[in-house]
Amino acid sequence: MASILPDHAGDWPLWARVVHGLIGAYCRTVFRMRSDPSTLPENGPAILVANHNAGPDPLFLIATNRRLISYLIATEYYRLNWLNWLLSRVGCVPVDRRQVTAATLRGALKRLEDGRVVGIFPEGGIHTPEKRPKPKPGAALLALETGAPVIPARVAGVRQLPGSDLWTFLRPRRARLRYGSPVPLEDLYQRYATNSEGDSRKLVEEAAHRIVEAIYALPE
Predict the structure, then answer these.
(1) Which long-range CB contacts under 8 A does 160-169 form with residues at least 24 apart?
(2) Fewest CB within 10 angstroms: 23, 41, 125, 210, which?
(3) Between β-strands 117-120 and 150-156, what pairing exists: parallel, antiparallel or unpaired?
(4) Could you read off the pLDDT of 27-63 as tens digits, one per residue?
(5) How far apart, in whole angstroms, are the C-alpha atoms of residue 115 and residue 206?
């Protein structure tokens, strides 16, 4: 199995730096992307969360960060041999769209234990900007299990287009990316660790609610 790339772009091999540069150029030219400075910490574990309105969204986050982002990625993408290799090199974790399995949680926890950044779209799959699905528990559970900071980001100006996915990736538009301060979860970390509430599910639901609210509190 291919080894995972180093955490920081300055330590990546040449091919990875070239790919990162091409992703940035693509986002700036096709989508005329404007972005706030990233608020990811320079080192240590972190969970990067964002809304998900179109296929290119992960690329906007990649282009605006110099740390490796290990996304939770739907298992079907791993069936493509060339993409499987790339996803493995960047430390992505396969996830079943229907439910978060123990294997997925172990993989994501391992990335955080190693001081990595895990990228998650907490509402699950792609949806229209007008819709706000109920958040999945994955990002909240990882945060409560590890105490890792959760960094919210919001993408605006891009939505999934009907028909071919290729058109969504190639049609020029204006993308705007905002980053926010860490989601305030400290009180939940302590209560979850001691289980003083006696109901971890409610704590996960509260954390998931706060995470999504922090994303949409960011301006478009």
Answers:
(1) 160/53, 160/54, 160/55, 160/126, 160/128, 161/54, 165/55, 168/54, 168/55, 168/56, 169/30, 169/55, 169/56
(2) 125
(3) unpaired
(4) 999 999 999 999 999 999 999 999 999 999 999 999 9
(5) 25
Ordered strands of the 69-74 beta sheet: 34-35, 176-179, 150-156, 46-50, 117-120, 69-74, 93-95
Distances (CA, A) of 151 to 91, 140, 156: 19, 12, 17
CA distance between the termini of the chain = 40
Q: At what angle do helices 186-194 and 138-146 cross, to 10 degrees?
A: 70
Mapped onto helix, strand or coil, the DSSP state of residue 48 is strand
Q: What angle do CA 205, 198, 148 make, to 5 degrees?
A: 50
**CA–CA distance, 192 with 205 (Å, rounded to integer):** 12
- Angle of helix 138-146 relative to helix 102-113, nearest 10 degrees? 50
pTM, two decimals, is 0.94
Identify the CA nearest to 50 among candidates 190, 134, 156.
156
The per-residue pLDDT for range 120-145, each reduced to its tens digit, is 999 988 988 888 888 989 999 999 99
Q: For strand 93-95 and strand 117-120, is the pairing parallel, antiparallel, or unpaired?
A: unpaired
From the list 178, 63, 74, 183, the residue with the least C-alpha distance to 126 is 74
Cα–Cα dist 216/102, whole Å: 29
Domains recognised in the chain with CATH numbers: 9-157+173-217 (3.40.1130.10)
